[in-house]
Amino acid sequence: MKFYIGTTTLVFAALLCMAIADKRYLLYDCNPGEGFNLRRDVYMRIANMVKNLREQKECKGDDWVLVLPPWGRIGYHWKERDMEQSKIPWSKFFDIPSLAKHVPVIEYDDYVEEIGDAKVDEIWYLQRYEEGWSSGNWEDKMHERPCIDQPVYESEGNSDKIRGWFWGYEETYANKFKCVSVQGSSKIFFGPLCGANTTAQSIMLDRGENILHDMFGGKDYWDCRRSMRFSKELVEEANEFRKKHFGSNDEADKTVMPEDWTEHKCTEGDALGGPYIAAHLRRKDFLYARKDQVPDLEKVAKVLKEKMQEYKVNKVFIASDGTKEEMAQLKTLLPEMVMYKPTKEKKKAFKMGGVAIIDQIICSHARYFTGTKESTFSFRIQEEREIMCFSKDMTFNRICSDQEPKDCEQPTKWKIVWNSDSEIWQ
């Protein structure tokens, strides 16, 4: 029996094969010690790298896709060591279709299914320059170098497979590994990734926190940040808490945003916020690492009572990593305080990252917010409020410690960029 295939079918098949061949995947990971909110910032650096790779002339024809690294193994911040706190997909915390409006993304499990194997072609382990920054003038540069530290990857016996930590997926392996000293922003990767140094279909950049933003605070930064909408499950939980404890909702608070973030734009001061104020109080390691910047609980209670009077509200929401004893003491000093305390079932369902996000959503919708200096948790809340167009005076605040002057330095007021990279600072 003979089969005849028409010309149109052959052309379509050829184009399909070319499309598959041209698809390339960028994976990344961070130092295990990096916290949840810093990792969100690293995502933005890598996502904008992929966006720019897709626009580079030397990368023409390469359909770059960002593979989202499963969440877990966040040492200090996520104390639970069981498998329930690893292999967590991004969809647990974020709205994937929203992310994809900025850059093509895919969950790790879907990546494995798509390529048909749990592997990465190449790992580039990003490290510092051993000689340090000694030239006197900053320059963006990268070179393949001998490994300075011993990476957590090794060859498997006599095979060519390289094993290591791949987000808890023991079956995953790599074909090739090298250490790369890097200093600078993601733009220095364009040439090497676009054929100058590799034609691999999949490349993993480990220690992605070593890559800097091309334009911190520019339009691409804010577009990527706006695309990071939270999962509907977490938003619904936070909204229900706001409604129950504060009588807060988006319509009354003037924080309604369109479903599609690309259609959203507002002006500073458009948002009113719910009838409560909110504070993020970072404690634990900050009590000794930044002890001169952390106010005592008596000072916190005093300032928050003053702010409740100023904004004519009678409730304050507290997000904190403080101990039970510290929060009990604060409750005595500040009876009006409310905290989000999920049931065991909800805590298990939302994971530790989800509980943190719910805290951030509630804080971001408050009439007034005050945070902790140099805390990425507070910074993420300030970004959310900037996106919703709260007044900067109601957003970029912190409580001074007793060791600081009364007019201590307040957080930098970042201005959202809607249309261009002009006027980034204010």
Automatic annotation (TrEMBL):
UniProt lineage: Eukaryota, Metazoa, Chordata, Tunicata, Ascidiacea
Enzyme Commission number(s) of this protein: 2.4.1.221
Localization of this protein: Endoplasmic reticulum; Golgi apparatus
Keyword set includes Glycosyltransferase: yes
Stated name of the protein: GDP-fucose protein O-fucosyltransferase 2
Organism domain of life: Eukaryota
The reaction(s) this protein catalyses: L-seryl-[protein] + GDP-beta-L-fucose = 3-O-(alpha-L-fucosyl)-L-seryl-[protein] + GDP + H(+); L-threonyl-[protein] + GDP-beta-L-fucose = 3-O-(alpha-L-fucosyl)-L-threonyl-[protein] + GDP + H(+)
Gene3D superfamilies according to UniProt: 3.40.50.11340, 3.40.50.11350
Transmembrane segments: none
GO biological process annotation, one example: fucose metabolic process
UniProt function note: Catalyzes the reaction that attaches fucose through an O-glycosidic linkage to a conserved serine or threonine residue in the consensus sequence C1-X-X-S/T-C2 of thrombospondin type I repeats (TSRs) where C1 and C2 are the first and second cysteines of the repeat, respectively. O-fucosylates members of several protein families including the ADAMTS, the thrombospondin (TSP) and spondin families. Required for the proper secretion of ADAMTS family members such as ADAMTSL1 and ADAMTS13.
Keywords recorded for this protein, A-Z: Carbohydrate metabolism, Disulfide bond, Endoplasmic reticulum, Fucose metabolism, Glycoprotein, Glycosyltransferase, Golgi apparatus, Signal, Transferase
GO molecular function: peptide-O-fucosyltransferase activity
GO cellular component labels: endoplasmic reticulum membrane; Golgi apparatus
Pathway participation: Protein modification; protein glycosylation
